[in-house]
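A favour, since you know our structure tokens better than I do. It will help me judge whether the discrete encoding reads sensibly. The space below this message is yours for that.
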Amino acid sequence: MPKASRSSFSNSQGKVQSYFHYFGNPTRLRKFLSFFLNYLGWAALLFLLIGLFLVSFYAPQDWQQGAVFKLIYLHVPLAWLSCSFYLLLSFFCLLFLVWKNPLAGLLASQTAPVGLIASALCLITGALWGRPTWGTWWVWDARLTSVLILFFLYLGFIALQKSYKNNPEGMRLCALLGLVGAVDLPIIHFSVQWWSTLHQGPTFRLGHMPPMPMQMWLPLLFTFLGFSLGGLWLILAKTYTALRARQLKGLLETETPHSSAYTIGNIP
């Protein structure tokens, strides 16, 4: 690696580490979350309300699928959240493994349940959409199967976390599972290109206009933003609640930011 590139990478790495150490102080992090959560929650609610209004009164029905096509406004955002939250979880796991950062462990533990719910709802809405269009609730399609694997990766992460609790080896195994499981993400994304599948191709592509009229993609954009902000709000709200619970137990003020109490396996 050239010297300039190596220096730039080191600076970026140092900035990420410094941010996590800065917010590793429980009191400082709680204050930031209490301020930020209100704005994030209202923004998510606003986008969702606008999106639902547009879906109900502006978005047309599909000429072949009819009203069932409107499940796209739930299914696509949930599919996005399922994958993006696992990518986020993997990032936190990497930070935990490299730097043993307690805040990264805390965030990973709070991301997993939200991702599990998103992936479960993604599979459910997909089944509801597939029944009238494919004639069956489920097929062992490459896209569907890889998303089902993602659901079990979330479930396995949570189960492993609960079973090991305060065991340091368990904390490390959780982080390793979260990191290795990220291999499933490119399989999900490229499955419709690598194999012959029933599932349609990507709804959005970077640098390309959506393959649908504005009356369809505009409501999808608002529900997409609403679900994304709402999911992020849930993760941060769970993080705030975990910190408050420790404060009420009288532990926060006596524990250091690097205490094992903030690692993956020991969050309420």
Notes: The two ends are 43 Å apart (CA to CA). The CA atoms of residues 34 and 240 lie 8 Å apart. The mean pLDDT is 83. Helices lie at 3-22, 26-57, 72-99, 102-134, 142-164, 168-180, 184-194, 214-248.
